[in-house]
Amino acid sequence: MPWLGLGVYKSSEGEEVKGAVKAAIEAGYRSIDTAAFYNNEAGVGTAIKECGIPREEIFVTTKVWNTQQGYESTLEAFEESRKKLDLEYIDLYLIHWPVQGKYKETWKALEKLYKEGMVRAIGVSNFHIHHLRDLLEDVEIAPMVNQVEYHPRLTQKELHSFCKNHRIQLEAWSPLARGEILTEPTVIEIGEKYQKTPAQIVLRWDLQNEVVTIPKSVKTERIIENAAIFDFEISMEDMARLDGLNINKRVGPDPDNFTF
């Protein structure tokens, strides 16, 4: 799984999402993150088909939405997503949110898809530690990924540690806190020191914390900028300063208080 990918949440189906995916692949991205809920899987699939890069070199993630959770309905939802993407297999399939009373049956469906080779990896999204503990009690195959809101104002250190101990890869959605973190004086100051943009500093912070990151954009120049994070390293001192920005602030819903 690549450390950097393109998120396509809120990218409109059709030309907008196709343009973003093609720009990302041209800029060197090899991971694209979509979901049934985003309503743009068809455009993502078309862009992958037309980009000229072999399918096996591109890592594609999609997710089952809350209203389709449950064993049989998840299998049906997966097939819908696969057909829209027009792909023989999906690289990573995630449970989008921990719908109480449903995510265990949903997980059994993901295990079946994995065993059948329809999915190369399976995981969850927006799972707290208590959700993971509950799920792990009944699994044959442990989740390989947990995709959560993660940025310097929401470092989730306990969750990160739990995931590491259980060999679950943490992945960051909204790594730039919907742009809010880009005006943080500490981030700007550190960016000036390394001659990097605030976004590049935060995305590099993700990587050095061993967190996969999927910033979203439909602007080619921003997509290219977000990928320029492999040619420098943030010092331990500056990493600690970024960690110190944590105030447990979410820009998205809390999984424990989400209207499913």
Give a brief description.
By secondary structure, this protein is an alpha/beta fold.
- Number of DSSP-assigned strands: 8
Name of the CATH class:
Alpha Beta
Low-confidence stretches: none
Report the β-strand fraction as a percent range: 5-15%
Number of domains: 1
Strand order of the largest sheet: 1-2-3-4-5-6-7-8
Largest sheet: 8 strands, parallel
User: H/E order of the elements?
Assistant: EHEHEHEHEHEHEHHEHH
CATH topology: TIM Barrel
- The secondary structure category is alpha/beta
> What is the end-to-end distance?
29 Å
Global geometry: globular
Computed over alpha carbons, the radius of gyration is: 18 Å
Question: What do these coordinates show?
Answer:
The chain contains 10 helices and 8 strands. By secondary structure, it is α/β, with parallel strands linked by helices. It has an 8-stranded parallel beta sheet. The chain is globular, with a radius of gyration of 18 Å. The two termini are 29 Å apart. The model has no long low-confidence stretch (mean pLDDT 97). Residues 10-246 form the NADP-dependent oxidoreductase domain. Belongs to the aldo/keto reductase family. It holds the Pfam family Aldo_ket_red.
Describe the SSE topology.
Blueprint: E1 6-7, H1 15-26, E2 31-33, H2 41-50, E3 59-64, H3 71-85, E4 90-95, H4 103-115, E5 119-125, H5 129-136, E6 145-149, H6 157-165, E7 169-173, H7 185-194, H8 198-208, E8 212-213, H9 220-227, H10 236-243
Helix pairs in contact: 1-2, 2-3, 3-4, 7-8
Keywords: NADP, Oxidoreductase
Family: Belongs to the aldo/keto reductase family.
Domain NADP-dependent oxidoreductase: 10-246
